[in-house]
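Quick question, first post here. What does this chain look like in 3D?
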Amino acid sequence: MGVISHDQRSGEKPDRNLALELVRVTEAAALAAARWVGKGEKESADGAAVDAMRLLLDTVPMAGTVVIGEGEKDEAPMLYNGEEIGDGSPPEVDIAVDPLEGTTLCARGMPSALSVIALSERGTMFDPGPCVYMEKIAGNSEIADCLSLTEPLAEVVARVAERKGKSVGDVTIIMLDRPRHERAVAEVRELGARIRLISDGDVSAALFAVSADAGVDLLWGIGGTPEGVLSAAAIKCLGGQLLGRLWPRDDAERQAALDGGYDLDEILDVDRLVSGQDVFFAATGVTDGELLEGVRYRRGGKASTESLVMRSRSNTVRTVSARHDQAKLREVTGGRYG
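> Answer (accepted):
Ran it through. Tokens below.
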């Protein structure tokens, strides 16, 4: 997984590439969660993924702090916001995790459940504080300057269509199927554009929106702030843009955000959400999807995984296919996954 950096070409010692370490982490979480696919127990699936991810993260050579985790310490015994992870050696980094993105997808055996992690230099990840949701819009580099959260969505869609040289009716917007989006759905349909509604999977949707061949032109909607930060990390590696604006759920959350010094009118772009210059992102499929193949069980006690690994410094994107010996994994992890 080495990257030939400028320092390496000049004969100096290269910086360390943590990509392979991170994909081992998401593979472990995916393998653990996959045992719960289709069993209707999303809490059990999420708990297994968190446990496996935490186990592997302790072996990674870094001094990490969880900025985007499973919640506050009292509610999340592992991978909580502010938790220190890694073996304590340099580099010092911020970590964003979603051990199981799409817990409902996993529990119901539906497509596109993922295990996701992102890493950047210490102090460079946006901490959303009390705000659980944000309004988001994302697209690839061709339309990055067409995006806006201050103009009507219909105007943005029309501008995207013009930039891409196609009719509005050929533009596809991906968004979460939620009651809070009903007005926007009606607006887009009246305009004549197409909508792809998804039940879950905010990070996957953002990746679709910035990928050239995914058949999606634009992501829009109100979704999780943790997923917004993770998506921004991926987009910094792939290219494109994501704009976000905090969206308090009620007056109490709004006041808590204001008391915490947050500007609720601020438009947060990818460089505000993840300001680091050396960003890593890894995702492993739990269930089959358009982005990645899920965990599959093979003859002879083997399992296979497919992962996506990216780094912003080089804009290198890798797909990693791996085979795992389940008996060996259970042996070396004390039966915690495999």
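The mean pLDDT is 92.
DSSP finds eleven helices and 13 strands in the chain.
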